[in-house]
Design goal:
Helix content: 40-55%
Order of helices and strands: HEEHHHHH
Strand order of the largest sheet: 1-2
Oligomer: single chain
Distance between the termini: 103 Å
Largest sheet: 2 strands, antiparallel
Number of strands: 2
Radius of gyration: 56 Å
Length: 229
């Protein structure tokens, strides 16, 4: 018997066993025994229990409570958010405040005010002129602030003239000559230091610069007095 026949036979057997297993499983599902009812179970008990939202109710498992026991925690009671409406006529107890249920005209209001010997508000005390008076006060305050700002700007923009005392020409010439004198002396000493030995040359140049640059505050102003770090 060749290998091809053996492989073909195995494939046929595997296919037949798979098909037979599927058919046998379907037969078991179709002929499975019915589930037995629990004691005291009727057809009415099969109806699902729904909660307030109409969804199936599921019993909660016991949980550890605050007192250390195990059980289902109590649900908080609902809060009554309704607010009782009270009439305004029932809440006002002050005898000086009279609330009318009827609308009256201005003439009737004047007659009532004359009878009670109290004048109606007028002028700046009138309700209709309160907003106007407030607006006028705000406008006046804004104008005053704007005037103060403009005055401060005018003061700050004025040119500042400061007198500077100029030295006479002779003094300037003498100062220039003095500066050139110490610069020439510094250059001569640096030239002498250049002829010194290798180890004495840095010390000699430093002493010369410190002698002339420090008193004349010339550090960083000329090439002979480099900027100090």
């Amino acid at each position: 018997m060749s290998w091809r026949v053996l492989f073909a036979t195995l494939l046929v057997v595997l296919a037949a066993s798979a098909w037979g297993g599927i058919q046998f499983g379907d037969w078991l599902v179709a002929h499975a025994p019915a589930a037995t009812r629990t004691p005291n179970e009727t057809d009415a008990n099969q109806e699902p229990i729904l909660d307030a939202d109409g969804r199936p109710y599921t019993a909660q498992p016991p949980q550890p409570r605050i007192d250390g026991t195990l059980g289902v925690p109590d649900r908080p009671t609902g809060t009554n958010w309704t607010v009782g409406t009270v009439s305004l006529f029932d809440t006002v107890k002050d005898p000086s405040v009279i609330i009318s249920r009827d609308s009256i005209s201005m003439d009737q209001a004047r007659q009532i005010a004359a009878a009670t010997q109290s004048a109606l508000p007028s002028g700046t005390n009138d309700v209709s002129t309160l907003d106007l008076a407030t607006q006028q006060a705000q406008t006046a305050q804004s104008a005053q602030q704007y005037a103060q700002i403009q005055a401060s700007r005018n003061v700050s923009q004025q040119p500042i003239i400061q007198s500077v005392d100029m030295p006479p020409p002779q003094q300037q010439a003498s100062n220039t000559a003095g500066q050139k004198g110490w610069q020439d002396a510094l250059r001569r000493e640096l030239a002498q230091c250049a002829d010194a030995g290798f180890f004495q040359r840095p010390t000699c140049a430093w002493n010369a610069r410190n002698k002339y640059c420090a008193p004349n505050q010339a550090w960083g102003t000329i090439a002979e007095c480099p900027h100090r770090p």
